[in-house]
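Hey, I was hoping to borrow your eyes for a little while. No rush at all, and the record is pasted right below.
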Amino acid sequence: MFSTAHNPNKDHEVSQPPNDSISSLSFSPAADFLVAGSWDNCVRCWEVKQSGTTLQSEPKAEQQQSGPILSCCWSADGTKVFSGSCDKTVKMWDLNSNSFTQVAAHDAPVKTVNWVQAPNYQCLMTGSWDKTLKFWDTRQAQPMMTINCEERIYASDVVYPVAVSILAGRKVKILNLENQPTVHHTMEPPLRYQLRDISIFKKEGKPAGFGVCSIEGRAAIEPFDNTAANSKDKFTFKCHRSIVSDHHKPQDIYAVNGIKFHPIHGTLATIGSDGKFSFWDKDARTKLKTGEQLDNTITCCDFNHTGTFFAYGSSYDWSKGHEFYNPQQKNYIFIRQVKDELKPRKKVVTMQLKCSLRGSERIEIT
């Protein structure tokens, strides 16, 4: 059962939200500007300001494509926004000139867009349901490189010199971006159902592995280095499931729609079709917090570059089919101040023990 309140966590409500389901949220890497892509064909930008403990969000501008927006991202300097659409194109929005021009195209809807900032080159990586990853110099009409994949691209993340992409069929493709993009290897994480989102985490400032989540109320942590010394860092855990005191009764299991790592602490957030967000410490195997349940599913999320804000979108994800769609239900974007909520906890020596630690809940390792 969902809550009857659209904002039970009392977080800041972004003004003038999208008119249809929110597919993507992305904070600027340079300042507190937030962009959202949605199924109403629009990409919108807000400036987020903080005065004491109060947040304000000012709508700055919006652009429209001829199909729903599935993904959006920023250039490294925060001056341009890229949006991938069901119209099979990618547009570049120059926020200084407000120009909106096509810079990439595929043969099917574009599901992912990610900016690559390398020492010797910069480009836009796009992933599509046409089963290709393409790399674009945005000044050229043709891609610098095309990588043909086994299946459709569902989600991607980039932390130089590594890129990761989820493919249909529960595959993860790992790319080395040094010098030029090359496929390092393709693997299958220990999740048995469709993968939904992926996010890279860092250790000592370098990409060290990724988190991936699925529709089966479960997520996995996968280090890039799978040697025996790092085997303890590889595990799966259950999340976004109903709490059942009687084990003879069925448990409601929800899709985990998103996973994001905190840019400072390395802790993480997951969001789900249960209308909740949860914060986790993967190193201490600890749940830090679970938000109150919204009256709708949570479809996407992101942290700002300083890790002080957590944005999440509340809109219908169609996980229960068309019969549960309510056209009168509004879509919302909320921003939560998370200065201390994602600080890591002290580790507990015995991993298998489920216990209470400073009001936190141990992750159930599966």
